[in-house]
Write a structure and sequence with these properties.
The chain is of the alpha+beta class. 35% of the residues lie in helices and 25% in strands. β19 and β20 form a beta hairpin.
Length: 573
């Protein structure tokens, strides 16, 4: 690959390897020999003349060392002939101190590194029961330790790309290669981790086996052939990597290069997970899809979301339902945003269950549509009650979640203690039952907003019979963000707000098991009767998971009764 880069771009190449740089030329009696038989005969004679006792193993080691030296001379000379400036450094990349010191020295010498290709690797294939810990460590640490050193010493601000040479063994496994597969899968996930945090591209290339070079022994060739895995000619492999670096995109951190039964295996592994609210499949409807859904007042979340004693379908759950409907209708896409949501009619369950209908239609023309995205208009109706939808929004889909921007609420400062404990807030100012009581701590409040810690939820906490075990947009987290808006408005204007619309909810990731930090920015209009907030949801590392922008509420002192009514209904005072 270095030779290919030299031929195409004439760069400065810094080659790091464990082997010592060979002498400029071979001894004359070996230089003209080419066949293994002739070379080994000449080597045997040299060893005998030196007085060394020679075993077959020693002769084979000497032969392999000569072959490596020839390959190094040939490749380094080919790079120079192609116009590259080449520097070779002998370092064992498993030695973290030595390798790290070399990287720092390279920065001192050259000022920057524009790109790095990590190709270190060895194989010692054996079945698990025949593996020793030392053998596993040699294979695993050669790839992983050196990759970790790179992650610690490279300077991402000036780095345009970092490529890890991984393997399909990491993605799909391979008999006899537990250590090699484990090491490559670490590279895959390290690439994913770094690519989300570094400005340049980080990619783990999961290579299929190369044909006329690399690590493919004859028995592996037969094994791959039996599995339908095609070997990659070296010239094709070099072209594929250059094309990946030229045309690949930021965010594509794990890439498979090579032909094999991947599509079948991937299809089995990535079958769409069931969505928590939906059981049936959507039906085609006028170029879009339509589905029906039963709203049962016996559900836990409806019992815990009552206004004036009546179960009310929460806006946050309506957002999740609409998102799930669109996701089920277009499963090959990822929902990256819900925008222009309007609450047109609240859904109140006064007389038992309700039948809801969701309609979703892709937009045929959208001037703001960017390449690689799809926009779908979606409406939520109560069956038989009105021709007007209860909710209306547009879902934005893309092939992957985008990288998160900086936290727009990071400027909140000078927070003061909130006047109530969390328990007091739920008793005195909020109307939410246990299912929605996800605020775990309030860090503080100011004239501009407030900050709190929220607990993610699972569908099993809210639904009697969830179809899936993971939300698209956690409705409890989203609702807790709206609860913070209520608390802020009560603290500053003694009014209770109810949601009416928002500009955009953008998705960047899924919460883990730990708490989510929620930052709310607020402003009021119309004498405090209109509240507009932006709410950021962040993981423990400060990375945006979701961003609710320009959420608008109508506020009234008369609505303060909702908290009092809820307190009476829950048996509290």
């Amino acid at each position: 690959m270095a030779c290919e880069l030299a031929r195409r771009y004439q760069p400065t190449l810094l080659i790091v390897g464990r082997s010592p740089l060979p002498e400029a030329a071979e001894p004359p009696e070996l230089a003209t020999l080419s066949t293994p038989q002739d070379v080994k005969a000449a080597l045997l004679e040299r060893l005998r003349r030196s007085g060394q006792a020679t075993t077959p193993a020693q002769l084979e080691a000497a032969y392999q060392q000569l072959c490596r030296a020839r390959e190094m001379r040939r490749n380094l000379e080919a790079m120079r002939q192609a116009g590259a400036r080449v520097h070779y450094y002998q370092v064992d990349v498993r030695d973290a101190a030595a390798f790290g010191a070399l990287l720092e020295d390279l920065y001192r010498q050259h000022g920057r590194l524009d790109g790095v290709i990590h190709g270190a690797g060895v194989i010692e294939d054996k079945r698990v029961e025949d593996k020793t810990a030392a053998s596993f460590a040699r294979v695993f640490e050669t790839k992983v330790n050196s990759a970790l050193v790179l992650s610690q010493h490279l300077r991402p601000a000036s780095l345009r790309f970092l490529v890890f040479f991984s393997s399909i063994a990491g993605r799909f496994g391979n008999a006899g290669q537990s250590d090699y597969a484990a090491a490559n899968e670490v590279l895959n996930k390290l690439a994913l981790f770094l690519d989300r945090r570094w400005p340049g591209r980080v990619v783990a290339v999961n290579w299929g086996p190369w044909d006329d070079t690399g690590m493919v022994a004859p028995h592996l060739r037969r094994h791959f052939a039996a599995r339908g895995v095609q070997l990659i000619p070296a010239a094709v492999g070099r072209h594929l990597l250059d094309a990946e670096l030229t045309y690949g995109h930021k965010g594509e951190a794990e890439v498979i290069l090579g032909d094999g039964p991947w599509a079948r295996v991937e299809a089995q592994a990535t079958a769409p997970a069931p969505l928590p609210l939906l059981n049936g499949s959507p039906a085609p409807k006028g170029g879009g899809i339509e589905l029906s859904w039963r709203l049962d007042p016996g559900e836990r979340y409806l019992q815990d979301h009552r206004l004036d004693g009546k179960p009310v379908f929460p806006m946050a759950m309506a957002v999740e339902l609409m998102a799930e409907a669109v996701q089920q209708g277009w499963p090959e896409w990822e929902i990256v945003a819900i925008r222009s949501l309007r609450v047109l009619r609240g859904i109140v369950l006064e007389n038992g269950a309700r039948a809801l209908r969701v309609l979703a239609r892709p937009q045929t023309a959208a001037p703001s549509l960017t390449e690689g995205t799809l926009e779908v208009d979606v409406e939520l109706y109560e069956e038989g009650l009105s021709r007007q939808p209860s909710y209306r929004a547009t879902a934005v889909l893309a092939d992957r979640l985008p990288a998160p921007p900086p936290n727009p609420c990071a400027g909140l400062a000078a927070l003061q203690p909130f006047p109530l404990t969390v328990a007091e807030a739920y008793r005195q100012w909020l109307f939410h039952g246990p299912c929605f009581q996800g605020i775990s701590a309030i860090e503080g409040i100011s004239e501009r907003g407030m900050v709190a810690l929220l607990l993610p939820s699972t569908p099993a906490q809210c639904l009697l019979r969830p179809a899936g075990d993971r939300w698209l947009i956690d409705p409890v987290l989203l609702d807790c963000g709206l609860q913070l808006a209520i608390l802020w408005q009560r603290a500053h204007h003694d009014m209770t707000p109810l949601p009416s619309r928002f500009a955009t909810y953008r998705r960047f990731g899924l919460p883990g098991e730990g708490p989510v930090r929620c930052c709310l920015q607020a402003r009021t209009d119309a004498g405090g009767h209109v509240l507009v907030v932006t709410i950021a949801f962040l993981d423990p590392a400060g990375r945006l998971l979701g961003l609710l922008e320009e959420m608008e509420f109508s506020c009234s002192k008369a609505l303060n009764r909702l908290a009092a009514a809820a307190a009476v209904g829950q048996g509290t005072s």
